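Q: Structure tokens for this one, please.
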Amino acid sequence: MGRHLTQDQIDAFREQGYLALPNFFDPETLARVRATTDRLLEGARRLTATNHVLDLDARHTPEAPIVNRIFNPPDQDPIFAWVMQGSAIADVLCELWGTPSIKFHHAKVNVKGAVVGNAVDWHQDAPFHPHSNDDAGSVGMLLDDADATNGAMQVVPGSHKGEIYDHWEGDKFVGRMPDRAVAQIPMEKVRTLTLPAGSIHIHNYRLVHGSAPNTSHRPRRLLINVYSAGDAIPLCPDRQASRFHGTMVRGDHPTHARCLARPLKLPPRPTGKPASIYAHQHEAKAAE
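A: Here is the predicted structure, written as tokens:
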């Protein structure tokens, strides 16, 4: 296994909580992933409600499909499973986290259709799937060029070193940070991850991030694979029901858990259906 990162990149990730790697995937792989994504999205024309593959927007109709997410892409097609396990992504994570063992948690394709794509409110990933330590995070593969107009991901550098915010409102899990915390975000420090298709960005699961709606006439689709170091143990059951959950994509299963001493509020227990941040945030807004 060759080295993929410089020490400066590793240091920047640890300091800022994220790292962007432009043009990480070759054009042929990108084309295969795009074609498979298009095929799965076409299935929305036969649906009137969310199922185990596609998370449909409230505005969806079979005649004018609007999909927010593809659930568990590695379960849907081998090209997604290869990206998750066979590509160099896991080798990069070994370098970032300084570990020989990397474990897969879950995956999804977040979809922002041209003009109709939803915003994702400011949030952290840790409240959705807390682990015993903080070597956990997400790798986004851009299937389309992304910029501010079509809802590229936005991050708050260094915010992974701060508080893990409560994503509940009373007894309801809303999947977003409270208003008091959002009001304190230093907006002048927010970075929009403008990158070409085929690039990846990686972020720590404590990092504050979100994205604006897609106001352009171009789609923005993002394949997200979520991983942890082998000794970062999930503290709650898998909510996505993927057959790949817990797969060691590099190294062996650990014999010990590495734990940080801190309280962590748990997300809702699994309902048997795949969970979506869009559904949590939409329900919270509808109740306001």
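A few notes: The radius of gyration is 18 Å. Residues 27-42 form the longest helix (16 residues).
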